[in-house]
Amino acid sequence: MSGFDLSAILGNPEYAAMLLHGIEMTFIIYAGSWSLAMALALLLLGLRLSPFRFGDPLVAAYVSYHRNVPTLVQLMLWYFGIFTLMPSGVATWLAIHNAEAIFAVIGLGLCQAAYFSEDLRSGVRSVSPGQMQAARALGHGYVSAMRFVIMPQGVRNALPPLINHSVSLFKNSSLAVVIGASELTHAVKEIENLSFRTFEIYVIGTVLYLFFSLVIMSIGAYLSMRADPARSARA
Amino acid sequence: MIHDMIAIIRDYWLLLLIGQYPNGPLGGLANTLILSALSIALAFPASILFALARLSKSPLLRWPVTALVYFTRGVPLLMLILWSYFLVPLVSGADVPSFVTMLTTLVVYQSAFLSEVVRAGIVALGPGQMDAARALGHNYVGAMRFIILPQALYNMIPSIISTFVSTIKDTTLGYVINVPDLTFAASQVNNQLLTQPFQVFLILAIVYFAICWTLTHFANRLERRITRRRAGLSSLPAAALVAPSKIISEQP
Protein backbone atom coordinates (compact mmCIF):
# COMPACT_ATOMS: atom_id res chain seq x y z
CA MET A 1 0.00 0.00 0.00
CA SER A 2 1.47 3.29 -1.02
CA GLY A 3 0.35 6.76 -0.08
CA PHE A 4 -3.06 8.34 -0.15
CA ASP A 5 -4.75 7.54 -3.44
CA LEU A 6 -8.44 8.19 -3.97
CA SER A 7 -8.26 7.14 -7.61
CA ALA A 8 -7.53 3.58 -6.49
CA ILE A 9 -11.16 3.45 -5.44
CA LEU A 10 -12.94 6.03 -7.57
CA GLY A 11 -11.03 4.99 -10.71
CA ASN A 12 -12.00 1.36 -10.24
CA PRO A 13 -15.33 0.81 -12.04
CA GLU A 14 -16.31 -2.09 -9.76
CA TYR A 15 -15.85 -0.04 -6.56
CA ALA A 16 -17.47 3.03 -8.10
CA ALA A 17 -20.51 0.94 -9.02
CA MET A 18 -20.69 -0.42 -5.44
CA LEU A 19 -20.55 3.12 -4.06
CA LEU A 20 -23.28 4.32 -6.41
CA HIS A 21 -25.49 1.39 -5.48
CA GLY A 22 -24.88 2.17 -1.80
CA ILE A 23 -25.87 5.81 -2.27
CA GLU A 24 -28.97 4.75 -4.18
CA MET A 25 -30.04 2.31 -1.42
CA THR A 26 -29.35 4.91 1.27
CA PHE A 27 -31.65 7.32 -0.52
CA ILE A 28 -34.35 4.70 -1.08
CA ILE A 29 -34.27 3.85 2.64
CA TYR A 30 -34.17 7.52 3.57
CA ALA A 31 -37.04 8.56 1.30
CA GLY A 32 -39.13 5.54 2.28
CA SER A 33 -38.67 5.96 6.02
CA TRP A 34 -39.09 9.75 5.86
CA SER A 35 -42.42 9.44 4.04
CA LEU A 36 -43.64 6.68 6.35
CA ALA A 37 -42.58 8.73 9.39
CA MET A 38 -44.27 11.92 8.20
CA ALA A 39 -47.53 10.18 7.27
CA LEU A 40 -47.62 8.38 10.60
CA ALA A 41 -46.66 11.53 12.51
CA LEU A 42 -49.62 13.42 11.02
CA LEU A 43 -51.87 10.50 11.95
CA LEU A 44 -50.52 10.49 15.52
CA LEU A 45 -50.99 14.24 15.75
CA GLY A 46 -54.58 13.91 14.54
CA LEU A 47 -55.22 11.20 17.13
CA ARG A 48 -53.79 13.41 19.82
CA LEU A 49 -55.82 16.47 18.88
CA SER A 50 -59.02 14.47 18.39
CA PRO A 51 -61.64 14.22 21.14
CA PHE A 52 -61.10 10.41 21.19
CA ARG A 53 -60.43 9.68 24.85
CA PHE A 54 -57.69 7.09 24.48
CA GLY A 55 -55.90 9.01 21.73
CA ASP A 56 -53.61 10.94 24.01
CA PRO A 57 -52.27 8.13 26.22
CA LEU A 58 -52.01 5.86 23.18
CA VAL A 59 -49.82 8.30 21.26
CA ALA A 60 -47.85 9.12 24.42
CA ALA A 61 -47.06 5.42 24.88
CA TYR A 62 -46.04 5.10 21.23
CA VAL A 63 -43.73 8.11 21.44
CA SER A 64 -42.29 6.97 24.75
CA TYR A 65 -41.46 3.51 23.43
CA HIS A 66 -39.75 4.81 20.33
CA ARG A 67 -37.78 7.48 22.13
CA ASN A 68 -36.51 5.24 24.92
CA VAL A 69 -35.52 2.11 23.01
CA PRO A 70 -32.34 2.41 20.92
CA THR A 71 -33.08 2.53 17.18
CA LEU A 72 -30.66 -0.32 16.59
CA VAL A 73 -32.58 -2.55 19.01
CA GLN A 74 -35.83 -1.66 17.25
CA LEU A 75 -34.31 -2.64 13.92
CA MET A 76 -33.04 -5.92 15.39
CA LEU A 77 -36.44 -6.66 16.91
CA TRP A 78 -38.07 -6.15 13.51
CA TYR A 79 -35.58 -8.00 11.37
CA PHE A 80 -34.43 -10.81 13.66
CA GLY A 81 -37.62 -11.08 15.71
CA ILE A 82 -40.87 -10.04 14.07
CA PHE A 83 -39.72 -11.25 10.63
CA THR A 84 -39.52 -14.83 11.97
CA LEU A 85 -43.05 -14.65 13.41
CA MET A 86 -44.62 -13.70 10.10
CA PRO A 87 -46.67 -16.25 8.14
CA SER A 88 -44.41 -18.10 5.73
CA GLY A 89 -46.08 -16.66 2.62
CA VAL A 90 -45.44 -13.09 3.73
CA ALA A 91 -41.93 -13.93 4.90
CA THR A 92 -41.03 -15.52 1.56
CA TRP A 93 -42.40 -12.54 -0.34
CA LEU A 94 -40.34 -10.19 1.86
CA ALA A 95 -37.22 -12.32 1.50
CA ILE A 96 -37.49 -12.09 -2.28
CA HIS A 97 -38.17 -8.35 -2.21
CA ASN A 98 -35.12 -7.13 -0.29
CA ALA A 99 -36.42 -7.75 3.25
CA GLU A 100 -33.40 -5.92 4.77
CA ALA A 101 -34.33 -2.64 3.11
CA ILE A 102 -38.04 -3.06 3.83
CA PHE A 103 -37.45 -3.66 7.52
CA ALA A 104 -34.98 -0.77 7.64
CA VAL A 105 -37.71 1.49 6.24
CA ILE A 106 -40.30 0.14 8.69
CA GLY A 107 -38.02 0.30 11.74
CA LEU A 108 -36.55 3.73 11.01
CA GLY A 109 -39.90 5.13 9.85
CA LEU A 110 -41.87 4.00 12.91
CA CYS A 111 -39.16 5.31 15.21
CA GLN A 112 -38.85 8.64 13.42
CA ALA A 113 -42.63 9.14 13.44
CA ALA A 114 -42.41 9.53 17.21
CA TYR A 115 -39.90 12.37 16.87
CA PHE A 116 -41.76 14.06 14.00
CA SER A 117 -45.10 13.90 15.79
CA GLU A 118 -43.59 15.53 18.89
CA ASP A 119 -42.07 18.27 16.73
CA LEU A 120 -45.42 18.92 15.05
CA ARG A 121 -47.26 18.82 18.34
CA SER A 122 -45.08 21.44 19.98
CA GLY A 123 -45.33 23.50 16.78
CA VAL A 124 -49.12 23.38 16.90
CA ARG A 125 -49.19 24.03 20.64
CA SER A 126 -47.18 27.19 20.21
CA VAL A 127 -49.89 28.68 17.95
CA SER A 128 -51.82 30.97 20.27
CA PRO A 129 -55.37 29.77 21.13
CA GLY A 130 -56.66 33.18 20.00
CA GLN A 131 -55.96 32.08 16.41
CA MET A 132 -58.48 29.26 16.71
CA GLN A 133 -61.07 31.56 18.26
CA ALA A 134 -60.53 34.19 15.58
CA ALA A 135 -60.83 31.57 12.82
CA ARG A 136 -64.04 30.22 14.34
CA ALA A 137 -65.38 33.77 14.72
CA LEU A 138 -64.73 34.32 11.02
CA GLY A 139 -66.97 31.37 10.24
CA HIS A 140 -64.38 28.58 9.75
CA GLY A 141 -65.43 25.15 10.91
CA TYR A 142 -63.00 23.12 13.08
CA VAL A 143 -61.48 21.28 10.11
CA SER A 144 -61.17 24.32 7.93
CA ALA A 145 -59.72 26.41 10.80
CA MET A 146 -57.13 23.66 11.32
CA ARG A 147 -56.42 23.43 7.61
CA PHE A 148 -56.09 27.14 6.82
CA VAL A 149 -55.12 28.83 10.08
CA ILE A 150 -53.59 26.52 12.69
CA MET A 151 -51.63 23.95 10.69
CA PRO A 152 -49.78 26.38 8.40
CA GLN A 153 -48.51 28.28 11.44
CA GLY A 154 -47.89 25.10 13.42
CA VAL A 155 -45.83 23.49 10.67
CA ARG A 156 -43.87 26.70 10.26
CA ASN A 157 -43.08 26.72 13.98
CA ALA A 158 -42.09 23.07 13.79
CA LEU A 159 -39.75 23.48 10.80
CA PRO A 160 -36.40 23.84 12.64
CA PRO A 161 -36.75 20.65 14.74
CA LEU A 162 -38.24 18.81 11.74
CA ILE A 163 -35.15 19.69 9.71
CA ASN A 164 -32.82 18.58 12.52
CA HIS A 165 -34.62 15.28 12.80
CA SER A 166 -34.63 14.81 9.04
CA VAL A 167 -30.85 15.08 9.11
CA SER A 168 -30.59 12.62 11.98
CA LEU A 169 -32.86 10.21 10.10
CA PHE A 170 -30.47 10.43 7.18
CA LYS A 171 -27.53 9.62 9.45
CA ASN A 172 -29.48 6.85 11.16
CA SER A 173 -30.10 5.18 7.81
CA SER A 174 -26.53 3.92 8.28
CA LEU A 175 -27.84 1.62 11.06
CA ALA A 176 -29.50 -0.47 8.34
CA VAL A 177 -26.07 -2.02 7.75
CA VAL A 178 -26.53 -4.03 10.96
CA ILE A 179 -29.48 -5.93 9.52
CA GLY A 180 -27.63 -6.36 6.23
CA ALA A 181 -29.17 -3.71 3.97
CA SER A 182 -26.74 -2.86 1.17
CA GLU A 183 -26.64 0.91 1.77
CA LEU A 184 -23.72 3.34 1.79
CA THR A 185 -22.04 2.18 5.01
CA HIS A 186 -22.36 -1.38 3.77
CA ALA A 187 -20.68 -0.42 0.49
CA VAL A 188 -17.89 1.34 2.41
CA LYS A 189 -17.21 -1.76 4.51
CA GLU A 190 -17.32 -4.06 1.47
CA ILE A 191 -14.88 -1.93 -0.49
CA GLU A 192 -12.62 -1.74 2.55
CA ASN A 193 -12.54 -5.54 2.71
CA LEU A 194 -11.79 -5.85 -0.99
CA SER A 195 -9.31 -3.02 -1.50
CA PHE A 196 -7.58 -2.75 1.92
CA ARG A 197 -7.54 1.00 1.30
CA THR A 198 -9.15 1.74 4.65
CA PHE A 199 -8.22 5.38 4.94
CA GLU A 200 -9.30 6.34 1.43
CA ILE A 201 -12.65 4.60 1.53
CA TYR A 202 -13.52 6.03 4.95
CA VAL A 203 -12.67 9.51 3.69
CA ILE A 204 -14.95 8.97 0.69
CA GLY A 205 -17.79 7.60 2.84
CA THR A 206 -17.47 10.38 5.40
CA VAL A 207 -17.39 13.11 2.77
CA LEU A 208 -20.47 11.64 1.09
CA TYR A 209 -22.44 11.56 4.36
CA LEU A 210 -21.32 15.08 5.26
CA PHE A 211 -22.19 16.35 1.81
CA PHE A 212 -25.71 14.91 1.80
CA SER A 213 -26.34 16.04 5.40
CA LEU A 214 -25.37 19.56 4.36
CA VAL A 215 -27.63 19.34 1.30
CA ILE A 216 -30.58 18.32 3.50
CA MET A 217 -29.75 21.14 5.94
CA SER A 218 -29.63 23.73 3.15
CA ILE A 219 -32.93 22.52 1.69
CA GLY A 220 -34.33 22.94 5.21
CA ALA A 221 -32.84 26.42 5.54
CA TYR A 222 -34.36 27.36 2.16
CA LEU A 223 -37.78 26.07 3.26
CA SER A 224 -37.64 28.01 6.54
CA MET A 225 -36.75 31.12 4.60
CA ARG A 226 -39.65 30.58 2.20
CA ALA A 227 -42.02 29.92 5.09
CA ASP A 228 -41.07 32.95 7.10
CA PRO A 229 -38.66 35.40 5.44
CA ALA A 230 -38.85 37.93 8.27
CA ARG A 231 -37.86 35.50 10.99
CA SER A 232 -35.02 34.01 8.93
CA ALA A 233 -33.63 37.47 8.27
CA ARG A 234 -33.58 38.14 12.00
CA ALA A 235 -31.95 34.83 12.88
CA MET B 1 -44.60 -16.50 24.82
CA ILE B 2 -44.33 -14.78 28.21
CA HIS B 3 -43.42 -18.18 29.60
CA ASP B 4 -40.53 -18.35 27.08
CA MET B 5 -39.32 -14.91 28.08
CA ILE B 6 -39.32 -15.77 31.77
CA ALA B 7 -37.37 -18.93 30.97
CA ILE B 8 -34.80 -16.92 28.99
CA ILE B 9 -34.37 -14.44 31.82
CA ARG B 10 -34.08 -17.27 34.36
CA ASP B 11 -31.40 -19.04 32.33
CA TYR B 12 -29.41 -16.08 31.09
CA TRP B 13 -29.85 -13.21 33.54
CA LEU B 14 -26.25 -13.48 34.67
CA LEU B 15 -24.94 -13.24 31.10
CA LEU B 16 -27.21 -10.28 30.36
CA LEU B 17 -26.13 -8.49 33.53
CA ILE B 18 -22.39 -8.98 33.86
CA GLY B 19 -21.33 -11.32 31.05
CA GLN B 20 -18.80 -14.04 31.89
CA TYR B 21 -17.42 -12.10 34.84
CA PRO B 22 -15.66 -13.22 37.09
CA ASN B 23 -14.66 -16.14 34.82
CA GLY B 24 -14.02 -13.77 31.96
CA PRO B 25 -14.30 -10.13 31.00
CA LEU B 26 -17.15 -8.00 32.28
CA GLY B 27 -20.07 -7.59 29.91
CA GLY B 28 -23.80 -7.17 29.51
CA LEU B 29 -25.72 -4.43 31.22
CA ALA B 30 -22.80 -3.63 33.55
CA ASN B 31 -20.61 -2.80 30.57
CA THR B 32 -23.33 -0.69 28.94
CA LEU B 33 -23.73 1.42 32.07
CA ILE B 34 -20.00 1.73 32.79
CA LEU B 35 -19.32 2.71 29.18
CA SER B 36 -22.07 5.35 29.21
CA ALA B 37 -21.06 6.76 32.60
CA LEU B 38 -17.38 6.94 31.64
CA SER B 39 -18.16 8.65 28.32
CA ILE B 40 -20.28 11.32 29.96
CA ALA B 41 -17.74 11.83 32.75
CA LEU B 42 -14.96 12.37 30.19
CA ALA B 43 -17.07 14.30 27.67
CA PHE B 44 -18.38 16.75 30.26
CA PRO B 45 -15.18 18.70 30.97
CA ALA B 46 -14.25 18.60 27.27
CA SER B 47 -17.66 20.00 26.34
CA ILE B 48 -17.20 22.98 28.68
CA LEU B 49 -13.85 23.77 27.06
CA PHE B 50 -15.40 23.39 23.58
CA ALA B 51 -18.29 25.67 24.48
CA LEU B 52 -15.95 28.34 25.86
CA ALA B 53 -13.80 28.06 22.73
CA ARG B 54 -16.87 28.49 20.51
CA LEU B 55 -17.93 31.57 22.47
CA SER B 56 -14.43 33.02 22.48
CA LYS B 57 -13.54 36.13 20.51
CA SER B 58 -10.40 34.56 19.11
CA PRO B 59 -11.02 32.94 15.71
CA LEU B 60 -8.07 30.63 16.35
CA LEU B 61 -10.02 29.01 19.18
CA ARG B 62 -13.44 29.35 17.63
CA TRP B 63 -12.93 27.95 14.14
CA PRO B 64 -11.30 24.57 14.78
CA VAL B 65 -13.83 23.69 17.46
CA THR B 66 -16.77 24.87 15.32
CA ALA B 67 -15.44 22.72 12.48
CA LEU B 68 -15.13 19.72 14.80
CA VAL B 69 -18.68 20.16 16.09
CA TYR B 70 -20.13 20.48 12.58
CA PHE B 71 -18.15 17.49 11.39
CA THR B 72 -19.25 15.32 14.30
CA ARG B 73 -22.87 16.30 13.87
CA GLY B 74 -22.87 15.78 10.10
CA VAL B 75 -21.46 12.26 10.07
CA PRO B 76 -23.30 9.15 11.30
CA LEU B 77 -22.02 7.81 14.61
CA LEU B 78 -21.49 4.47 12.91
CA MET B 79 -19.00 6.10 10.55
CA LEU B 80 -17.13 7.65 13.49
CA ILE B 81 -16.98 4.25 15.17
CA LEU B 82 -15.45 2.73 12.05
CA TRP B 83 -12.92 5.59 11.96
CA SER B 84 -11.92 4.95 15.58
CA TYR B 85 -11.77 1.23 14.96
CA PHE B 86 -9.19 1.93 12.29
CA LEU B 87 -7.35 4.94 13.76
CA VAL B 88 -7.12 4.27 17.51
CA PRO B 89 -4.87 1.17 17.18
CA LEU B 90 -2.85 2.99 14.50
CA VAL B 91 -2.23 6.06 16.69
CA SER B 92 -1.63 4.18 19.95
CA GLY B 93 0.38 1.43 18.25
CA ALA B 94 -1.24 -1.20 20.46
CA ASP B 95 -3.99 -3.75 20.30
CA VAL B 96 -6.88 -1.78 21.73
CA PRO B 97 -9.93 -3.49 23.19
CA SER B 98 -13.18 -2.58 21.45
CA PHE B 99 -14.44 -1.11 24.72
CA VAL B 100 -11.72 1.57 24.59
CA THR B 101 -12.36 2.24 20.90
CA MET B 102 -16.05 2.76 21.63
CA LEU B 103 -15.25 4.95 24.63
CA THR B 104 -13.01 7.18 22.51
CA THR B 105 -15.70 7.57 19.86
CA LEU B 106 -18.43 8.33 22.36
CA VAL B 107 -16.31 10.91 24.18
CA VAL B 108 -15.63 12.80 20.96
CA TYR B 109 -19.23 12.47 19.78
CA GLN B 110 -20.89 13.42 23.06
CA SER B 111 -18.52 16.31 23.78
CA ALA B 112 -19.56 17.84 20.46
CA PHE B 113 -23.25 17.48 21.31
CA LEU B 114 -22.87 18.49 24.96
CA SER B 115 -20.83 21.55 24.01
CA GLU B 116 -23.88 22.82 22.11
CA VAL B 117 -25.94 22.30 25.25
CA VAL B 118 -23.40 24.14 27.41
CA ARG B 119 -23.15 26.93 24.87
CA ALA B 120 -26.92 27.33 24.77
CA GLY B 121 -26.97 27.36 28.58
CA ILE B 122 -24.38 30.14 28.71
CA VAL B 123 -26.05 32.19 25.95
CA ALA B 124 -29.44 31.79 27.64
CA LEU B 125 -28.13 33.55 30.74
CA GLY B 126 -27.82 36.75 28.73
CA PRO B 127 -24.92 39.21 28.65
CA GLY B 128 -26.04 41.02 31.83
CA GLN B 129 -24.57 38.37 34.12
CA MET B 130 -21.14 38.72 32.54
CA ASP B 131 -21.31 42.52 32.57
CA ALA B 132 -22.30 42.53 36.22
CA ALA B 133 -19.52 40.11 37.15
CA ARG B 134 -16.97 42.23 35.30
CA ALA B 135 -18.31 45.37 36.95
CA LEU B 136 -17.81 43.73 40.33
CA GLY B 137 -14.14 43.26 39.46
CA HIS B 138 -14.09 39.64 38.29
CA ASN B 139 -11.85 38.94 35.33
CA TYR B 140 -13.01 36.56 32.56
CA VAL B 141 -11.88 33.38 34.32
CA GLY B 142 -13.29 34.46 37.66
CA ALA B 143 -16.61 35.47 36.13
CA MET B 144 -16.90 32.14 34.30
CA ARG B 145 -15.82 30.14 37.31
CA PHE B 146 -18.00 31.83 39.95
CA ILE B 147 -20.90 33.46 38.10
CA ILE B 148 -21.64 32.08 34.64
CA LEU B 149 -20.82 28.37 34.72
CA PRO B 150 -22.49 27.56 38.05
CA GLN B 151 -25.78 29.03 36.81
CA ALA B 152 -25.51 27.63 33.30
CA LEU B 153 -24.58 24.14 34.49
CA TYR B 154 -27.35 24.11 37.07
CA ASN B 155 -29.91 24.93 34.37
CA MET B 156 -28.40 22.22 32.17
CA ILE B 157 -28.67 19.30 34.58
CA PRO B 158 -31.77 17.89 32.83
CA SER B 159 -30.11 18.17 29.41
CA ILE B 160 -27.06 16.38 30.75
CA ILE B 161 -29.26 13.55 31.97
CA SER B 162 -30.90 13.28 28.57
CA THR B 163 -27.47 13.23 26.94
CA PHE B 164 -26.70 10.34 29.27
CA VAL B 165 -29.83 8.59 27.98
CA SER B 166 -28.68 9.16 24.39
CA THR B 167 -25.29 7.76 25.30
CA ILE B 168 -26.88 4.59 26.68
CA LYS B 169 -28.73 4.24 23.38
CA ASP B 170 -25.58 5.04 21.40
CA THR B 171 -23.58 2.29 23.11
CA THR B 172 -25.70 -0.24 21.21
CA LEU B 173 -23.82 0.70 18.03
CA GLY B 174 -20.73 -0.85 19.60
CA TYR B 175 -22.36 -4.07 18.40
CA VAL B 176 -20.73 -3.40 15.02
CA ILE B 177 -17.21 -3.65 16.50
CA ASN B 178 -18.17 -6.34 19.06
CA VAL B 179 -18.18 -4.25 22.22
CA PRO B 180 -19.37 -6.74 24.89
CA ASP B 181 -22.35 -4.67 26.06
CA LEU B 182 -25.99 -5.60 26.68
CA THR B 183 -26.88 -5.79 22.97
CA PHE B 184 -23.91 -8.06 22.36
CA ALA B 185 -24.91 -10.27 25.30
CA ALA B 186 -28.45 -10.52 23.95
CA SER B 187 -27.22 -11.54 20.53
CA GLN B 188 -25.03 -14.19 22.23
CA VAL B 189 -28.11 -15.51 24.00
CA ASN B 190 -29.94 -15.48 20.68
CA ASN B 191 -27.15 -17.46 19.04
CA GLN B 192 -27.30 -20.10 21.77
CA LEU B 193 -31.09 -20.45 21.63
CA LEU B 194 -31.60 -19.95 17.88
CA THR B 195 -35.35 -20.60 18.14
CA GLN B 196 -36.66 -17.56 20.01
CA PRO B 197 -35.19 -14.40 18.48
CA PHE B 198 -38.36 -12.37 19.00
CA GLN B 199 -38.47 -13.12 22.72
CA VAL B 200 -34.76 -12.34 23.19
CA PHE B 201 -34.88 -9.00 21.38
CA LEU B 202 -38.15 -8.06 23.07
CA ILE B 203 -36.46 -8.56 26.44
CA LEU B 204 -33.59 -6.39 25.18
CA ALA B 205 -35.99 -3.63 24.14
CA ILE B 206 -37.84 -3.80 27.46
CA VAL B 207 -34.62 -3.51 29.48
CA TYR B 208 -33.43 -0.47 27.52
CA PHE B 209 -36.88 1.06 27.78
CA ALA B 210 -37.00 0.59 31.55
CA ILE B 211 -33.63 2.27 32.07
CA CYS B 212 -34.03 5.12 29.60
CA TRP B 213 -37.65 5.85 30.50
CA THR B 214 -36.79 6.13 34.19
CA LEU B 215 -33.96 8.55 33.46
CA THR B 216 -36.00 10.62 30.98
CA HIS B 217 -38.83 10.86 33.46
CA PHE B 218 -36.42 11.98 36.17
CA ALA B 219 -34.90 14.58 33.83
CA ASN B 220 -38.31 16.00 32.95
CA ARG B 221 -39.32 16.35 36.59
CA LEU B 222 -36.01 17.98 37.41
CA GLU B 223 -36.43 20.37 34.50
CA ARG B 224 -39.82 21.48 35.75
CA ARG B 225 -38.42 22.08 39.21
CA ILE B 226 -35.47 24.06 37.86
CA THR B 227 -37.68 26.16 35.58
CA ARG B 228 -39.84 26.94 38.58
CA ARG B 229 -36.87 27.88 40.71
CA ARG B 230 -35.29 30.02 38.00
CA ALA B 231 -38.58 31.83 37.55
CA GLY B 232 -38.29 32.80 41.19
CA LEU B 233 -41.68 31.39 42.05
CA SER B 234 -42.45 28.62 44.46
CA SER B 235 -45.40 27.57 42.33
CA LEU B 236 -46.19 28.51 38.76
CA PRO B 237 -49.69 27.95 37.40
CA ALA B 238 -49.98 24.29 36.43
CA ALA B 239 -50.44 25.12 32.73
CA ALA B 240 -46.98 26.66 32.50
CA LEU B 241 -45.41 23.54 33.96
CA VAL B 242 -46.86 20.89 31.71
CA ALA B 243 -45.57 22.51 28.51
CA PRO B 244 -43.86 19.92 26.30
CA SER B 245 -40.34 19.27 27.45
CA LYS B 246 -37.74 21.22 25.53
CA ILE B 247 -35.07 18.63 26.18
CA ILE B 248 -33.42 17.86 22.89
CA SER B 249 -32.97 14.14 22.77
CA GLU B 250 -30.90 13.39 19.76
CA GLN B 251 -30.91 9.96 18.31
CA PRO B 252 -30.47 7.04 18.32
From TrEMBL, chain A:
PROSITE patterns assigned: ABC_TM1
Keyword terms of this UniProt record: Cell membrane, Membrane, Plasmid, Transmembrane, Transmembrane helix, Transport
Subcellular location: Cell inner membrane; Cell membrane
Segments passing through the bilayer: 27-47, 75-95, 201-223
Record has ATP-binding as a keyword: no
Annotated membrane topology: Multi-pass membrane protein
InterPro entries recorded: AA_ABC_transptr_permease_3TM (IPR010065), ArtM/GltK/GlnP/TcyL/YhdX-like (IPR043429), MetI-like (IPR000515), MetI-like_sf (IPR035906)
Keyword rRNA-binding (UniProt): no
Domain of life according to the entry: Bacteria
Domain ABC transmembrane type-1: 23-220
Main localization (coarse): membrane
PANTHER family xref list: ABC TRANSPORTER PERMEASE (PTHR30614:SF47), MEMBRANE COMPONENT OF AMINO ACID ABC TRANSPORTER (PTHR30614)
NCBIfam families, per the entry: HEQRo_perm_3TM
Family: Belongs to the binding-protein-dependent transport system permease family. HisMQ subfamily.
Protein name as catalogued: Amino acid ABC transporter permease
Species of origin: Rhizobium sullae
Upper lineage: Bacteria, Pseudomonadati, Pseudomonadota, Alphaproteobacteria, Hyphomicrobiales
Automatic annotation (TrEMBL), chain B:
Residue stretches making up the ABC transmembrane type-1 domain: 29-219
Top-level taxon of the source organism: Bacteria
Principal subcellular localization: membrane
Cellular compartment(s): Cell inner membrane; Cell membrane
Transmembrane feature ranges: 33-53, 65-86, 106-125, 146-165, 198-220
Keywords: Cell membrane, Membrane, Plasmid, Transmembrane, Transmembrane helix, Transport
InterPro entries referenced in this protein's UniProt entry, alphabetically: AA_ABC_transptr_permease_3TM, ArtM/GltK/GlnP/TcyL/YhdX-like, MetI-like, MetI-like_sf
Membrane topology of this protein: Multi-pass membrane protein
Database matches in Gene3D superfamilies: MetI-like
A Pfam family that the UniProt record links to this protein: BPD_transp_1
PANTHER family per the UniProt record, alphabetical: AMINO ACID ABC TRANSPORTER PERMEASE, MEMBRANE COMPONENT OF AMINO ACID ABC TRANSPORTER
Family: Belongs to the binding-protein-dependent transport system permease family. HisMQ subfamily.
UniProt-recorded name of the protein: Amino acid ABC transporter permease
Biological source species: Rhizobium sullae (Rhizobium hedysari)
Species classification: Bacteria, Pseudomonadati, Pseudomonadota, Alphaproteobacteria, Hyphomicrobiales
